[in-house]
């Protein structure tokens, strides 16, 4: 039975470090593992790849991979909720054999996006009004641009004067590409592009490290988003001791990072060189993550209608909960292999069948609506299995019918029929090396499946009629033997 194998080499019951190995249709395909810069990657002619809009960040795509009749969809990171600059992920009813989905927020159902935005702006505004500083750790691509647009619009509407900064480097480069590929954003951004490019911010400027100690209120977007290193951690260490300041964590934080620790209420942090940092600033978590939540994952399953489901890029306990929910609601198998484990899914290949026009006419004579010629139609529905011919015959209680080819060859030979059999056997043994040649008790000579029988009439005893019979598998050999025997037998050949 054909099958698809999936082995996470990264992101198996774990968040981050994705690398998925898929074996499908005799091909091994690596997903989400990056590329070798400076090299050209050749795409196999038998692979069919289709991309779907993923909505996670600019240019993000889900992919469907088909080899013959087998197919896999890999989501990567995706977002089923449209935001201020990107649309929602979309996929058609492609019905893959297996859908491999991220599950970062496997047990989370987010509240209203509008409420979150209102709370976010309120907290930033209150902190700035009391003279405090707001640190927003973000990753360079995606949430940084989303929240920049939100604050830029609010600052414009409220005529706010406090400076907003974003860290130079990756975020600055990302903003450049957003300006460049604005046609990949949502409809609202594209419509306003003629009047104004939303990524040309008027109130948001590039940040310099010397601004960290500046007096007065400010808002800073800094990377990375989990406070595990870099500028965001440097600013946090400077501002953590002031109660007027605030840090807003807009996304997921992996266990062990500073971001994860402060979100869990830790007020004293041990840093390198045994230093201790007391956390006095306000800590807020407001999920503006561009990953699908549990509701979004279920929505994608309804859209794609997969035959099997496999979860990656999530925490084991949360994945287990979602796995049970998927199996219960959709009645499909759901897998969640750890790194290095392989999940195997048996596939049921579709077999295209040509139907005669007469059969269609007879079916129509039974009544029913006229078929749409552009759409496939099921005339008779049944559960089909692919089995070997031997197994099918056994289950049906039938005997195999063999199709054999027959050829007559006339041969001049003065010996008796039995001696002619022996002479043919001896001749073929000397000519055909590596073949199974037998002289049976009834005088018949066999070469593989080929049967050779000799007969003659009393009126012409020296004229032998050779009857050659073979199955279609030995057609080439049968043709060769008939040609060989038409040339006659060597005169010196012994009849033993």
Automatic annotation (TrEMBL):
<dbReference type="InterPro" id="IPR011108">
    <property type="entry name" value="RMMBL"/>
</dbReference>
<dbReference type="GO" id="GO:0016787">
    <property type="term" value="F:hydrolase activity"/>
</dbReference>
<comment type="similarity">
    <text>Belongs to the metallo-beta-lactamase superfamily. RNA-metabolizing metallo-beta-lactamase-like family. INTS11 subfamily.</text>
</comment>
<dbReference type="GO" id="GO:0004521">
    <property type="term" value="F:RNA endonuclease activity"/>
</dbReference>
<dbReference type="Pfam" id="PF21386">
    <property type="entry name" value="IntS11_C"/>
</dbReference>
<dbReference type="InterPro" id="IPR022712">
    <property type="entry name" value="Beta_Casp"/>
</dbReference>
<dbReference type="GO" id="GO:0046872">
    <property type="term" value="F:metal ion binding"/>
</dbReference>
<dbReference type="InterPro" id="IPR036866">
    <property type="entry name" value="RibonucZ/Hydroxyglut_hydro"/>
</dbReference>
<keyword id="KW-0378">Hydrolase</keyword>
<dbReference type="InterPro" id="IPR050698">
    <property type="entry name" value="MBL"/>
</dbReference>
<dbReference type="GO" id="GO:0005634">
    <property type="term" value="C:nucleus"/>
</dbReference>
<dbReference type="InterPro" id="IPR001279">
    <property type="entry name" value="Metallo-B-lactamas"/>
</dbReference>
<keyword id="KW-0963">Cytoplasm</keyword>
<protein>
    <recommendedName>
        <fullName>Integrator complex subunit 11</fullName>
    </recommendedName>
</protein>
<keyword id="KW-0862">Zinc</keyword>
<dbReference type="GO" id="GO:0005737">
    <property type="term" value="C:cytoplasm"/>
</dbReference>
<dbReference type="Pfam" id="PF10996">
    <property type="entry name" value="Beta-Casp"/>
</dbReference>
<dbReference type="Pfam" id="PF16661">
    <property type="entry name" value="Lactamase_B_6"/>
</dbReference>
<feature type="domain" description="Beta-Casp">
    <location>
        <begin position="144"/>
        <end position="262"/>
    </location>
</feature>
<dbReference type="Pfam" id="PF07521">
    <property type="entry name" value="RMMBL"/>
</dbReference>
<keyword id="KW-0539">Nucleus</keyword>
<keyword id="KW-0479">Metal-binding</keyword>
<dbReference type="GO" id="GO:0016180">
    <property type="term" value="P:snRNA processing"/>
</dbReference>
<dbReference type="InterPro" id="IPR048662">
    <property type="entry name" value="IntS11_C"/>
</dbReference>
